[in-house]
Amino acid sequence: MHEGPLSGIKVLEFTQIIAGPFCCMLLSDMGAEVTKLEPLEGEPWRLFNELVPGESRTFASLNRGKKGMSLDMQRPEARDIIRRLIAESDVMVINYRPGVAEQLGIDYETARQINPSIVYCENTAFGKRGPLAQRGGYDIVVQALTGLMAGEAKMQGDVPMAAYPAPIDYATGIQMSNSICAALFHRERTGKGQRIDSTLMGTALAMQTSQFTWIDAFDDDIIPALVADLEQARAEMKSFAEQEQVRFQYRPKPPGNIYYRVYQTADGFIALGALSHSLRARVLQVTGLHDPRYREDGSFELAPDGWAEFAPQLVQQAEALFRTKTTEEWGQLFQDAGVPSGPVHFIEELFEHPQALDNGLVTELEHDVLGHMRMVAPPFQMSEAPLAPQGASPPLGRDNDEVLRSLGYEDAQIETLRTSGVIR
Q1: pLDDT at residue 351 greater than cutoff 80
Q2: Exposure of 401 by Cβ count < 10 A (0-12 exposed, 13-18 middle, 19+ buried)?
Q3: In contact, 195 and 120? CB cutoff 8 Å
Q4: Coil, helix or strand for 364?
Q5: Which residues, including other chains, have CB under 8 Å from residue 334's CB and lie 6 or more apart?
Q6: Domain residue spans in the chain?
Q7: In this predicted model, what pLDDT tens digit does every residue of 20-38 receive, in sequence order?
Q8: Is 260-345 a CATH 3.30.1540.10 domain?
Q9: 290 φ, ψ (degrees, to nearest 5)
């Protein structure tokens, strides 16, 4: 077993789909021993676009390095197994809909009676209180409710589309692993376990800090009026595009953005990122474009007189100019000037990209069923306690016997559990 920073920590996982499994995979990469409990048929992500029965790309990508158990958690015999597992675990991770953990006897109050030092992390869509507490929610639903989908909406016809791939789920998984590490550190200092509550909604709002900040002196008149006008627009059955225009009246986008965007080149596309005055000045030096917002003293005026009329012309000039050179040519020019830029890739091109390989971001694993596979390696490293994948994802119920033996079950008892349908 890999000796990572969480070596010796035992994690009991009751999660499905993305946020919880991603969290526990990160903990496994850090050296924790993660035991994932699934229903007898497997968690839903196993069955999504199966490559072979019971194995999918999505499941394999989010569950590496774990021990896998499959059991009927409604059965009394299974609940006895779970109680024994809780007693010897350091961490429990849950992402069921509110109330399910209580029904299964894996809620925090029950768990801490068995193991007072347990670190218990439960993730829900909207939290355990409030009018939406009992509502289930996936990433797309929370994107819609929290404004993330509307903030920079991509449209499919007249309908806004969700951002892909599930940014709230993945960010929540990172947040969960972060909070668990903090709780383990707190336990190391105090000896006390505790409950952690995370939500997809909380993550989505945290990802939009600049938009979800109300400054009284500037927003007391704007935000209530904006909300009222949006409600009126919906009452009048206005299209989403028309609703966007209502919002832009209060939160206008500065016209003429030539510094932070994607351009088409002579042979592809290039992303340009210049967010400071000095970087924007270098873009102008490289391109030869004239931006009247820049004064001779180097200062920047956001909207000089006549800017609304000139801004579209500047954008058109920039777009035409970028089409005169290749992506590589522009990339070299901006690199020489110290301006961040890069070509647009599809993700499949990164398996062999030297930057990903040279920084150890691609790992190779052997899966029991799927065979040899490559996937993303741990996304960060530590000099004194390095991270490493602890194997591929487990086939359904692969480790039932091993885990049960570690809990003191004899082979005859295990066979009885299997023949009676408690385990696979």
Answers
A1: yes
A2: middle
A3: yes
A4: strand
A5: 272, 283, 286, 340, 341
A6: 10-205+360-419, 216-250, 260-345
A7: 999 999 999 999 999 999 9
A8: yes
A9: -110, 120
Rounded Cα distance between 34 and 10, Å, is: 6
* Cα–Cα distance, 236 to 243 (Å, whole number): 10
H or E, element range at 165? none
Q: Is the entire prediction scored with pTM above 0.85?
A: yes
Tokens in use for 13? 């996982």
Residues 37/26, Cβ–Cβ less than 8 Å:
no
Yes or no: domain 10-205+360-419 corresponds to CATH 3.40.50.10540: yes
- Residue 423: DSSP 8-state: B
For 247, the token pair is 């919002």
User: CA 55, CA 369: separation in Å to the nearest integer?
Assistant: 8
- Report the C-alpha gap between 36 and 12 in whole angstroms: 6
| C-alpha span between 121 and 203 (Å, rounded) | 15
- Given the structure tokens 């992303």, which residue do they identify? 271
Report the phi/psi class of residue 333: left, alpha or beta, with left for phi > 0 and alpha for psi in -120 to 50. Answer: alpha
